[in-house]
Amino acid sequence: MPWWSWILIWVALGACTLLVLMLGGIYLFRKGVAVMRGAGEALDQVAARPARTATADDAALAALAPALAGPRAPGSAVFADPAQMRREYEEGRERRRLARRDRRVARRRERGQMQSLSDLGLN
Description:
mainly alpha
């Protein structure tokens, strides 16, 4: 193979590499423009949507908020009495267990399924 064939091979490889890079750049640019166009349309739809007003559900959630937050503020357990924290943890665990049982009994009642004796407190 003559010496100049190596030059032709490397020039062809370089040209193909540049072509692939340019086509990839054009592809990415078009995809980016499409994403920006879609984001602009989504922002326009959000801006055109009317503001949400307070509903009865919001009032119910606001009334439930203290019960959901628990008796303590976050981070206060660091300075609390360990025995009291243990009692609160066990009480919360029992409340969650009973709530799961109540949901399970209600779900089975809705579906017409048989109830577990332990769920009904008969076992």
